[in-house]
């Protein structure tokens, strides 16, 4: 049993565990002196208090960002790239410590947390490379004397609000493109998981990111910080990952300033298994897509549609695989599945299962709170799930695999698309025509074909419909942090 009573004792570099926030280049307490506690969801013990900041500290961070951004943008792409590359190297060098901090505050198993650190760092690496490629355009003039060029310039100061489920990667894939193109950045991480963000900011400082270019505001009053981002005229863009409900609030709040918005919101991912699929591969893909991060990702399979001919065999194999997951404290060896983030999340999972069972579904595996207590929950498989059940329309965000039975392709596509969401979707099939047809028919920003894991820094991550606006990652990931400027020059005759 590891001694986690003091997280700092588990770290090779204990200075990465911070209890101050980074505002305008200084590590400080809240003006009021108030703090709030960050706790370990696996054990319930308090890891450390952090400053409970308000609009005033946020405004100071924005002021500093506004000033610092000018010099940062004036550097060459190559100079910014070198600093980001150093930041990437430091994230890799400190990956174990960053992963321990992440597991302690969020709960995901250490190996998965380490995977997230590498994933987060990959965005810093990718965008350090893109910093040198912020290309413009030349357009043939519309009149003989006219020369037209298009340049792309940083939007300026960016505010970010991110959730607890990926405390490192969700910030990394926003701050990296922002800094790469010359923006300055003020981050507000989730109240549950600010420690990963603070550790990242310390490493950014060590890498040479200048004072004021990257601030991290810790606060238990997220709505107040959100208002400052939306109402302060020095902030030109807000980037958010979280629930669709909060995304709508922020879009409304930002409307008065007509600010640029990137939204990565909720999902309700369909995962379809056709009769011709490789069943074992489909089970493996479902396990990754459904139980990764204990079901707490916006791209997790939420509705699993299985064609009638393979339904029973698939359900049996999936239940067997789910029963093998090792639930426990993510810092213990061999654990594959941590706790849920909080009691509210457990209530939601229980509500979805109870509703499904009351309407006729059967629990094939799991179904209950785990004997470990706290917010641990048994990985669950439900059969006989139908469209009148809550799980059909609402993201469970937990370890519940609801299996729907379907007969034909048109019917399952209609069911898969019958949602306000459009983030990730998945299907398993071997028929090439079907693969093409179904990929085109799914109304989603991302489609995984014969794979349950689609996330990578090299591809554009994002949704359609009410799952969001904009894309993160890939060469497109910088677009939202840039403004286009068109310059028209009239060339006078030499004489
Ligand atoms: N797309 C995704 O990746 C995610 C989707 N979700 C979905 O949302 C559900 C609820 O999860 P939850 O964590 O409550 O998600 P929220 O959308 O409430 O929280 C995400 C982030 O937004 C902040 N926030 C909350 N309310 C406001 C506000 N009014 N103004 C500004 N910022 C705000 C939170 O801060 P703080 O935590 O400090 O309150 C957090 O940093 C989940 O069950 C899941 O369905 C959740 C997380 C991620
Ligand atoms: O849950 C999210 O918000 C993002 C999922 C992480 C990823 O796969 O990139």
From TrEMBL:
Enzyme's top EC category = oxidoreductase
Does this entry carry the keyword Oxidoreductase?
yes
Q: Name one Pfam family in it.
A: Aldedh
- Tell me yes or no: is Lipoprotein among this UniProt entry's keywords: no
Tell me which EC number(s) this protein carries.
1.2.1.-
GO cellular component assignments: cytosol
Name the Gene3D superfamilies on file.
Aldehyde Dehydrogenase, Chain A, domain 1 (3.40.605.10), Aldehyde Dehydrogenase, Chain A, domain 2 (3.40.309.10)
The UniProt GO MF terms for this protein read: succinate-semialdehyde dehydrogenase (NAD+) activity
Aldehyde dehydrogenase domain mapped to chain residues: 27-487
The highest taxon in the source lineage is Bacteria
Its Gene Ontology biological processes?
Answer: gamma-aminobutyric acid catabolic process
Q: Any idea which UniProt keywords this protein has?
A: Oxidoreductase
Tell me the active site: 264
Q: Belongs to which family?
A: Belongs to the aldehyde dehydrogenase family.
Q: What is this protein called?
A: Succinate-semialdehyde dehydrogenase
- Species of the source: Algicella marina
Give the organism's phylogenetic lineage. Answer: Bacteria, Pseudomonadati, Pseudomonadota, Alphaproteobacteria, Rhodobacterales
């Amino acid at each position: 049993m590891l001694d986690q009573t003091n997280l700092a004792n588990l770290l090779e570099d204990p200075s990465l565990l911070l209890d101050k926030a980074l505002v305008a280049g200084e590590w400080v307490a809240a003006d009021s002196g108030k703090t709030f506690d960050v706790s370990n969801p696996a054990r319930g013990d308090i890891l450390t208090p952090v400053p409970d900041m308000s609009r005033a500290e946020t405004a100071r961070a924005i002021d500093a960002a506004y000033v610092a951004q000018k010099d940062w943008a004036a550097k060459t792409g190559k100079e910014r790239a070198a600093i980001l590359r150093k930041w990437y190297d430091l994230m890799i060098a400190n990956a174990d410590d960053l992963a321990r901090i992440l597991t302690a505050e969020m709960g995901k198993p250490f190996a998965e947390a380490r995977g997230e650190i590498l994933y987060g760092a990959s965005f810093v690496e990718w965008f350090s490379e893109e910093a040198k490629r912020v290309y413009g355009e030349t357009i043939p003039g519309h009149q003989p004397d006219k020369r037209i060029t298009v340049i792309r310039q940083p939007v300026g100061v960016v505010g970010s609000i991110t959730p607890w489920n990926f405390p490192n990667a969700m910030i990394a894939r926003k701050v990296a493109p922002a800094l790469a193109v010359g923006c300055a950045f003020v981050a507000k991480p989730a109240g549950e998981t600010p420690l990963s963000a603070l550790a990242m900011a310390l490493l950014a400082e060590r890498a040479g990111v200048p004072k004021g270019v990257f601030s991290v505001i810790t606060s238990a009053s997220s709505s107040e910080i959100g208002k400052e981002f939306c109402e302060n005229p020095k902030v030109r863009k807000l980037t958010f990952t979280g629930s669709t409900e909060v995304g709508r609030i922020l879009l409304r709040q930002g409307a008065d300033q007509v600010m640029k918005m990137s939204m990565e919101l909720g999902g309700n991912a369909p995962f379809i298994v056709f009769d011709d699929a490789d069943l074992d591969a489909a089970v493996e893909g479902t396990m990754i897509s459904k139980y990764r991060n204990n079901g707490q990702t916006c791209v997790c399979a939420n509705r699993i549609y299985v064609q009638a001919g393979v339904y029973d065999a698939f359900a049996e194999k999936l239940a067997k695989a789910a029963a093998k997951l090792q639930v426990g404290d993510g810092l213990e060896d061999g654990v594959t599945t941590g706790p849920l983030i909080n009691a509210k999340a457990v209530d939601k999972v229980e509500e979805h299962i109870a509703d499904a069972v009351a309407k006729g579904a059967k629990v094939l595996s799991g179904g209950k709170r785990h004997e470990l207590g706290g917010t641990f929950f048994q990985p669950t498989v439900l059969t006989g799930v139908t469209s009148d059940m809550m799980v059909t329309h609402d993201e469970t965000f937990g370890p519940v695999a609801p299996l729907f039975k379907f007969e034909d392709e048109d019917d399952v596509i209609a069911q898969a698309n019958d949602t306000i969401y459009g983030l990730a979707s998945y299907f398993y099939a071997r028929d090439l025509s079907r693969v093409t047809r179904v990929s085109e028919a799914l109304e989603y920003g991302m489609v995984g074909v014969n794979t349950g894991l689609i996330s990578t820094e090299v591809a554009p991550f994002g949704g359609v419909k009410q799952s969001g606006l904009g894309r993160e990652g890939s060469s497109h990931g910088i677009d939202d942090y840039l403004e286009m400027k068109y310059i028209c020059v009239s060339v006078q005759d030499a004489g």
